Amino acid sequence: MQLSWEPAWLAVEGGIIWVDYVPTLAWPLNEMDNAEKQRIYNLNECEIIFGVLMKLNANSNNGTSVDIMAPYKHQVFMLRKLLQTESLSSLDINIDSVDGFQGKECDVVIFSLTRIVGSFRFLADERRLNVALSRALDRKIIIGNLDYATNNTLLKAVSIASKIHKYDSEFCVIS
Question: In the predicted model, is pLDDT for residue 78 greater than 90?
Fold first, then answer.
């Protein structure tokens, strides 16, 4: 499917776009839920994803399907919370964990790595990364800090195969 929007930084049809950024905090923070499990989320990536969605909404056909995937349930919760009051009328958005998307396809996939410190356990799972990157019919966008990701062999290989763009706080994606 050919989409009508082509902002210069989204022009990698069928390839992977990696949006790198400088984090404001060491995500995930050391917050625990009621069951004493760590809440793993990253508000920097939530804000970047919101900016990407705003640009997609302004430049896409009605009904463009966008799946936003995150490896951690609290990141999914934070993304849903952020987007629940927004009207992105040109987009059909679904937000879920990677495991929740198995077997589904869409026009655009946005994958939030979420972590910038700590374990690669989930992110280094080749099967889950395959699910995240194989669902998109047109565009695959990874939001993640390269300094962290390139410490893992699998994520480093994906970053090498990607078109890298830098993100700044004014939502300018700098090639």
Answer: yes
* CA-to-CA dists, residue 174 to 21, 30, 43, angstroms: 10, 31, 20
12-174 classified as CATH 3.40.50.410? no
Least confident among 3-7, 62-66, 149-153: 3-7
Nearest CA to 137 out of 175, 104, 99, 112 is that of: 104
Q: What six digits make up the tokens of 20?
A: 């790198």
**What's residue 31's pLDDT?**
75
| Nearest of 117, 174, 167, 163 to residue 140 by alpha carbon | 163
- For the chain, give every domain's residue range: 12-174
Give the predicted TM-score (pTM) of the model. 0.86
DSSP-H helix ranges across the chain: 43-58, 73-83, 126-134, 146-149, 153-160
Exposure letters 64-82 (e unless 16+ CB within 10 A, then b): bbbbbbbbbbbbbebbeeb
Backbone dihedral angles phi then psi of residue 56, each to the nearest 5 degrees: -60, -45
pLDDT of res. 7? 44
What value does the mean pLDDT take over residues 143-147? 96
